[in-house]
From TrEMBL:
Keyword match Cell membrane: no
Key words, A-Z: Acetylation, Membrane, Mitochondrion, Mitochondrion outer membrane, Protein transport, Transport
Subunit structure, interactors included: Interacts with MTX1/metaxin-1. Associates with the mitochondrial contact site and cristae organizing system (MICOS) complex, composed of at least MICOS10/MIC10, CHCHD3/MIC19, CHCHD6/MIC25, APOOL/MIC27, IMMT/MIC60, APOO/MIC23/MIC26 and QIL1/MIC13. This complex was also known under the names MINOS or MitOS complex. The MICOS complex associates with mitochondrial outer membrane proteins SAMM50, MTX1 and MTX2 (together described as components of the mitochondrial outer membrane sorting assembly machinery (SAM) complex) and DNAJC11, mitochondrial inner membrane protein TMEM11 and with HSPA9.
Protein location: Mitochondrion outer membrane
Name of the protein in its database record: Metaxin-2
Gene symbol of the encoding locus: Mtx2
Occurrences of domain Metaxin glutathione S-transferase (ranges): 174-236
Length: 262
C-alpha cells in the first residue's frame, strides 16, 4: 500500500474511433474521471481485444505495477488501499447514500445503454454489430457480435428488461436523471464542494450519452432536459480533462463531433 503510484500506470479499453460502444466508453470515462480526481496519472491504451484481456471480461481495466484490476468499484477499492480516497470526508450516512445513487446509475443508465446497444434492432444493425465486430474478419466479426448479443439479451431477460419497449427504457433514464438532478441541485458536486466516485460515475455516463451519435437523439435529449446535469458535465470536462495530455484523455480525443462547450 505504501508504494507510490507508478508513472507507467495504464488503462485499457477497446479501439476508440471504430470499435468501442456507448456503455464501455461510459465505464472507461468514469474510471478516467475518478483517477483524474485523485490526481493519479494514467495512460489510455486502446486494444481491439481489451475485453478478452480483462480479468473480469469487462472494460476498462487498469495495469498498475504487477496488478490488473477491472471496473470502477474494484478500482476504487484498489486505489483506496494505496492511500487515495475521494469519499473519506463523508460520514456513514452520506457513504450509504452515495452507494445507493451509484447503484441507481448502474441499474438504470448502464442497463439502458446495454438495452439500446443490443436490444434495439435498428441500433444493433446500424451501429452495434458493425462496431463490435470491426477488428475481426468475416465471419468471426458476426459470430462474436451474435455471441455478445445473446449474452446481453439473456441478462436483460433475467432482470426483467427484455419485454420493455424503447419508450419505457427512455422513461427509466428520465426518472434516473430526475433523481440525480434533484440530488445535485445547485451544488458543484453531489456531496458539496469535493467530487466523489459518484461524480466520476455520473460524469462518465452522462457525458458519453451527450456526446455519442446514435440513430436518434432521444437518449441525449433526456439528459439535456436537466440543465444542472449538463452544467455538471461541462464543469468536470473543463476542470479535469481540458488542458491535460491529449493522448491520455478520452474527452479530449473523443471521436464525436459534438461538444458541450459550443
Amino acid at each position: 500500500a505504501a508504494e507510490p503510484w507508478p508513472e507507467n500506470a495504464a488503462l485499457y479499453q477497446q479501439l476508440k474511433e471504430e470499435q468501442i460502444l456507448l456503455s464501455d466508453n461510459a465505464s472507461s470515462l468514469a474510471v478516467q474521471a475518478f483517477l483524474q480526481m485523485c490526481n493519479l496519472p494514467i495512460r489510455v491504451i486502446c486494444r481491439a481485444n481489451a475485453e478478452y484481456m480483462s480479468p473480469s471480461g469487462k472494460v476498462p481495466f487498469i495495469h498498475v505495477g504487477n496488478q490488473v484490476v477491472s471496473e470502477l468499484g474494484p478500482i476504487v477499492q484498489f486505489v483506496k488501499a494505496k492511500g487515495h480516497s475521494l469519499s473519506d470526508g463523508l460520514d456513514e450516512v452520506q457513504k450509504a447514500e452515495m452507494k445507493a445513487y451509484m447503484e441507481l446509475v448502474n441499474n438504470m443508465l448502464l442497463t439502458a445503454e446495454l438495452y439500446l446497444q443490443w436490444c434495439d434492432d435498428v441500433t444493433v444493425e446500424e451501429i452495434t454489430h458493425p462496431r463490435y465486430g470491426s477488428p475481426y474478419p468475416w465471419p468471426l466479426n458476426r459470430i462474436l457480435s451474435y455471441q455478445k448479443q445473446w449474452e446481453v439479451r439473456r441478462k436483460m431477460k433475467a432482470i426483467g428488461w427484455a419485454g420493455k419497449t424503447l419508450e419505457q427504457v427512455l422513461e427509466d433514464v428520465d426518472q434516473c436523471c430526475h433523481a440525480l438532478s434533484q440530488r445535485l441541485g445547485t451544488q458543484p458536486y453531489f456531496f458539496n464542494k469535493q467530487p466523489t466516485e459518484l461524480d466520476a460515475l455520473v460524469f462518465g455516463h452522462l457525458f458519453t450519452i451527450l456526446t455519442t451519435q446514435l440513430i436518434t437523439d432521444e437518449l441525449s435529449e433526456k439528459v439535456k432536459n436537466y440543465s444542472n446535469l449538463t452544467a455538471f458535465c461541462r464543469r468536470i470536462e473543463q476542470q479535469y480533462f481540458e488542458g491535460h495530455e491529449k493522448e491520455s484523455s478520452t474527452v479530449a480525443a473523443r471521436s464525436s463531433k459534438k461538444s458541450l462547450l459550443r
